[in-house]
Each structure stands twice: as C-alpha cells, then as structure tokens.
Amino acid sequence: MAAAPLGRRRPTVAEAVDLVYHGIRTRARTTRRTLYGPDASGALALAAFVSLTVAAAVALAVIVGVSLLGQPVFYRYPERGYPAPVRVGVGLALATFPVALVCMWAGRQRVARWLAVIGSLGTIGLATWLAVHVFDVQDARRAASEVEPQNWLSVPDETLEPSNLFGLVTLLCVPGVLLVATRSTSLDRRRVGWGAALAGLLGTVFVLLTTTDLLQRARLAVLGPEGTSTGPAPSLHDTGLSHGVVIALVAAAAWGLARPPRSQGLAVACALMLPALGYTIGTLVTPVAFRPGWSRTEGLAMNLLEVVVVSAIVATLATLAIASCRPQEAS
Predict the structure, then answer these.
(1) pLDDT band, residue 329 (cuts 50/70/90)
(2) CA angle 232, 236, 237 (to 5 degrees)
(3) Are 287 and 296 in contact (CB under 8 A)?
(4) How many angstroms separate the CA atoms of 180 and 47, rounded?
(5) Nearest-5° angle of CA 283, CA 287, CA 291?
(6) What is the DSSP string of 143-178?
(7) What dihedral do alpha carbons 212, 216, 218, 222 form, nearest 10°?
(8) C-alpha 27, offset from chain centre
(9) What is the mean pLDDT of the chain?
C-alpha cells in the first residue's frame, strides 16, 4: 500500500469503512431517484408490457395443453392428465395473463397489475404442487421396487425437469414484479393493441407446437396402418414449446436492443434475460435438491459457471439501463 502524501495521514480502518458505506448509500439514493424518474418508469413499463406479451402467449399454450388436452408438463407414466381440480386451477391461474394484457389495452392498469401478480402466485403454486407430487410418486416407486422388485416397472412414474420449471416460473413471474415495481404503466393504446395481437399470434404458434405430435398421431390413426397411434397427448416438455419460447425471447430481446431509446431497449433485454437466469439456477440446484441418490457435485463447476455468466449479463444490462436513464448534466 502506498504511503500517504506529506501533510496528510492515512485514514483509519473505521474511517475507510465509513467512507465506503456513505459512498454506497449515496449511489443507492441516486439509483432510487433515477428509477423513480420518468425515463425509468417508461422503460420499466415497456419491459413489463413485452414480458407480459410473451407470458400471455405461453399461458395460452399451457392452458390448452394442460387444462383442455390433458397434457402433463413433464413425462408421466401412464400417460394421462392431471386431476380435474389441478387442470381447472391451472386454467384459472394462467388465464390471468391474457386478461391482464386486455386490461392494459383497456386502460385498466391497476387491474392488470393485480391480475399479473395473481397469475405469478398461481404459477408458483403449480410449480410447488408439481415438485411435491413428483417426490411422492418417486417415493412410492422406490418403496414398490423394494417390496416387489419384479413389478416395479408397472408402478406409475413421473419426472421433473427443474431447469425448465424454474425458467417457466421466472418467465411468468417477471411481468407481475415489473408492473408492481413501476409507478406508471401508461402506454400508447395502439401499441398495447399490437402487443395483444402479437400475444395471440405467438399463443397460436405455441399451441401448434404443443399439439403437433398429437395431430400426427390422429393423422396416422386415420390414414396410416397403425390404428393404435392415437393416444394421450405427449408432455409439454416433449414438444417444441421450449424451443419456441426461447426463439420468441431472443427475438423480443433483439427487437428491444435495436429500437430507441436506449434505456427502454436495455430494460426489455434485461427483463427477457431473467428466464434464462431462472433456467440456469434450476440446472444448478437439480443434483442437490431434485435428484436423490445422485452425486451432488456432478457438473457443479459448469452449472455454477453458467449461473455466473448469465447473472453477469443481467447485471450489466440492468446497470447500463439505469445509467442511460440518468439525466445528462449540461456541460
């Protein structure tokens, strides 16, 4: 450590800690003042709107798949839908996202905010039920394998992909968090109308992705030689829904970064990167909490590196967005 200049003394440890503390406090106050400004409010409102558009499309696909067609979210043996109360609950909870988008178009911003929050809580409830249910099924399967080893293959089985589940929950929770965080969600009604139409188009594409295999089975049953090809719809995880959602998120983030003003584009990109962060966190905790009997350190270094990289990208986008919202001082 370099010596202090002549005439000045080196600060004590307490003074250095106090200086760092007040510096962080000042920066926090500046950041909070920036987030309450009109530029930041507009950026957060647009990010909430874009994320709600994608969430509404995904919600439509899940409603059609789980509630109407009886598709499980992940692999389930024997292939069948969830109990009727769960399917009805999923439909009611996720229907709040498209309704919230319609409320934003109608100018009912407060109603849209609360609907998005209710949908987020419903999504968390669905994920919790899935995790608990899969654990119960796996416990019963292990117990059956110990009692009757020769018949354990006929015992019901169900799997869970925590990475996809974490990503889905994050995707559906981001709109509610952003709508609560921003004080002003007023957007041009024409823009909201285009967003609602886009959500309907994306939802249609996602529904087609989830039902492609089911339609193929029906076509083979009618035209092909395999009359038994009709059967329960495959799980959502086994369809092209995940790939379609990733493409939609990347396209929306690129659209946000390519359009002015810079603060809004960065805010949109940051919001749409959060599901990727949720996905990597799910991958990280999978061997620890969701794979009993597996090595808890398997792939830990690579999974941790993915979390660090995605977290750094999200933090960088958030920092740049906040910095671009600060008023420029006149020279």
Answers:
(1) very low
(2) 120
(3) yes
(4) 12
(5) 120
(6) HHHHH-GGGGGGS-EE---HHHHHHHHHHHHHHHHH
(7) 150
(8) 29
(9) 78
Contact 320, 266 (CB under 8 A): yes
Query: Cα separation of 282 and 135, whole Å?
Result: 16
* Residue owning tokens 């590196």: 305
Average pLDDT over residues 302-313: 91
Name every residue whose Cβ is closer than 8 Å to that of residue 262 and which is 6 or more positions away in sequence.
Answer: 324
Model pLDDT, residue 1: 47
Quick one: average pLDDT of 272-289? Answer: 87
For every residue of 189-241, DSSP letters joined together read HHHHHHHHHHHHHHHHHHHHHHHHHHHHHHHHHHHSS-GGG--SPPPGGGTTH
Q: What is the pLDDT of residues 77-96, one digit of tens each?
A: 777 778 889 999 999 999 99
Please count the CA atoms within 13 angstroms of the CA of 81 that sit on its side-chain side: 20
Domain boundaries, the chain: 41-260
Q: What is the pLDDT of residue 240?
A: 80
